[in-house]
Amino acid sequence: MKKLCALFICLALLLVGCGKSDYNDYVNSLGGVDISEAKVVSSQDSHGGFHGDGVLFVSFDCSDVSDSALEGIKSWTAFPLSDNMQHVVYGGFDDEISIPGITNGCYLFHDRHSDAVDPADDSKLFDRYSYNFSLLLFDFDTNMLYLIGVDT
Fold this sequence. Notes:
This protein is α+β, with helices and mostly antiparallel strands. Helices cover 22% and strands 26% of the residues.
């Protein structure tokens, strides 16, 4: 009986692991860059509650990613960050988000809130009671890419 129970637990864990989303594919679909050769340096995800609220934060080392794969970054917004993005990244929006200072970079904001008129516009971000957005930041000096996903 114990072996059967242990087998069931292993099977359940295997199935849960198979359902895990691939961060690299998400970045590719959102930002138009193929980072399949990038290494995930760190990741944390507090999603999973009853409503799926939480914060996703992933950092990627893109040193081994070819320049041609990162070509889509050219269409992103160059630094400096907007005031709202500055608050999200460096202003204490969430204590779990820790990104070193980026001076030579670019970013892509995507507002997934149902009230968003233009998904690329962050000007109304803090005029709502909830947040649903994704943010990609790329540091040209360190070849690091950061993904932030917020759902409240």
